[in-house]
Amino acid sequence: MPAEPAPSFPFRAADPVLPPAEYRKLQVERPVCRVTLPTGDLAWLLLRHEDVRDVLADTRFSREAITAPGAPRILPIARGSRSIFVMDPPEHSRLRKLVSKAFSPRRIEALRPRIEDLTRGCLDTMAESGPPADLITCLAQPLPITVICEMLGVPLADVDQFRAWTDIMLGFTPERQAEVLAAKDSLSAYLTELIKDKRRTPTDDLLMVLISAQDEGDRLSEEELVAFGYTLLGAGYHATTASIVHALLTLLRNPARLDDLRRDRGLLPGAVEELLRLSQAGGGIGALRIATEDVKIGDVVIRAGEAVLPSINAANRDDSVFPGPDEVRLSRPRNPHVAFGHGIHHCLGAQLGRIELEVALGSLLARFPDLRLAVAEDELDWSVGLAFSRPDELPLAW
């Protein structure tokens, strides 16, 4: 019997705010299926919530192995790295233990007043520009990039340059590979010098906490510090920017739920979880892993050395876990979404992302109760990068 064809992935959705139609069809017919990645490599795509969670927590599937020469990969620029994002235990465990203190719930919650203050300033700018105003340039970009740069201790004067480098890096397309590598090298060089400066003149910020972090004499190496810096920038800036945009668009499409939030701000925490579940901001790429031994998932045996791609976006719409998976239910009683991952690679900055999204949405609705799109949705131009999905501009009126 001939093998099933391996379709190209990521799938292109007709509507960028909704998942591709292939997800629901494959969840029923082929929940573990072969796909062809942008590099031409093959991977097993997982679409069921149970399978995705299992693989995310299963150490037989290696993140570090994707950096080996000749390994299957999503993007051709994936190379050896000291980033926590592509480490396995015991190195991952060592690094996570060293940095986890910097992301304690108390430390992150203490940032809320500053996030609220920055948001007010962003909305002041938005109000001054007058309708229509672009949500992305007024709030969705400046809020998270400023928060993460302040956390790291990046001088305010350098924030725009940081944003430019990360915009290039996270807006990857195969045609821009040289430009992306140059931006990554520039960012790494900048962070290297910044770390040297902080060693000479200690400061009170996250990067200094990471520089000082130690456990029984163990410290982060220079390479690990730099890698962690640009990992934080990518995850803490671009992911949050895209999440804010997708969340607001989803609410604007569901005016009854938007009205519920306007009337009862106590719904915001649950709304944030539901909007994270529904979000397609991740662009569908996910975090590739390599099987280190033969593992059976469903009816399929994944062979050692084969690539596996757990689809977060598909898992979060699995109707066996989420009744009415495409509905916006602000008070969903059970919401075990995997928007921030699962297992040892669960996002360290998950609580920060939640706070930023909650503050951004709550402040927007309080400041502009009649908020609406200033253009028809089909007039929005969406970015074509593979890492995060969002329109280039989001004009709003009120």
From TrEMBL:
This is Cytochrome P450. It comes from Amycolatopsis coloradensis.
